[in-house]
Design a protein that fits this description.
Elements lengths: L17 H8 L3 H8 L10 H13 L6 H8 L4 E6 L6 H16 L2 E6 L4 H13 L4 E5 L11 E4 L8 E6 L1 H14 L5 E5 L7 H15 L8 E3 L11 H10 L5 E3 L3 H13 L9 E6 L12 E4 L2 H17 L8 E4 L2 E3 L9 H7 L1
Parallel strand pairs: 1-2, 1-3, 3-4, 4-5, 5-11, 6-7, 6-8, 8-9, 9-10
Antiparallel strand pairs: 10-12
Amino acid sequence: MMTGIRKNAPDAARPVTLKTLAEYLDLSPATISIVLNDSPVAKSISPATRERVHAAAKKFEYRPNLAARMLRTRITNTIGVIVPELSEGYFTGVMLGVEEYLLQEGFLYFTVSHLGRNDLRDEYQELLMSRRVDGFLLVNTELSLNVPLPVVGVSSHSKADGVSNMMLDHNFAASKALRHLYDLGHRKIAFMKGQRYSLDSEARWEAIVRIAKELGIAIQPELCIYLEKNLWSPELGYPPMRELLSRTHDFTAMFCFNDTAAIGAIRAIEDAGLNCPRDISVIGFDDIIVAEYFNPRLTTVRQPLHKMGWTAAQLLIKRIQFPDEPYPHEVWFEPELVVRESTASIHNTHQSRSK
């Protein structure tokens, strides 16, 4: 019969095992394991007992035998995260949410960046599976191999079976941004389409075309910028905007593919002797950290990046721990328009020029 009376402390010269910890607390090894692994049935054990177990494990620096647990459960508590790159911006926002949730749940993660190269993307998927990760979390990355593991993607737009997608409502985003410009009086608007390898690019562009048609805004080919370079710095938006301005100033606003490119575009506007927003209003996309502190402060479509990363990690862990439960193929998120200083009502000079 369990008395709850503590016995002599474990020998400090020897590693503390589950068995010696159980003997010290006068509890069964199963009880110790359930509490320390935070098993679903741990709630059936009294709070006082759970507190005793955790206190003793901390006091004697007990470390569970991870190899034995892996053999028993086939779970390594390790996630493979695949991203295009890890520069400051969109991916930083998503990864903050991913990291916080995985840390909370005691999961480790390998993060690899493929830099837009298909060969690296495929190689990393194979490499991570050889490291026995429990699942994949993809950020703006397409699954290319047949992976027999749970997979959750953020902006991955995957139609593959077994993949859960965190999706942004691009129609809502385009509507908020274009209606904002329309209400400010802008009719001649330039547009920036993302790189072909960016998985958000086509969905966002289709939404822009659809909403522009609803509002009666003409998308003029000569006022469109198509990003091509594999860059994640403001240099992405600077040369295309400079080239556009070398051809024409006959527009009053620019809707950029992301905030990073928008910052480069604004620099090109200033270098051309113009001013944002007096001469050209600019809207970005994402609401990265620097957007609020750039000059002018950037009006942008805010993606809930942290929430998307957190939710993706949460769903992936749930799928790993409860593989037989149903899971959604798509989880939708609503963006928000954040109005700051880079957009303004059209001036009389612009109105007369557009007639």
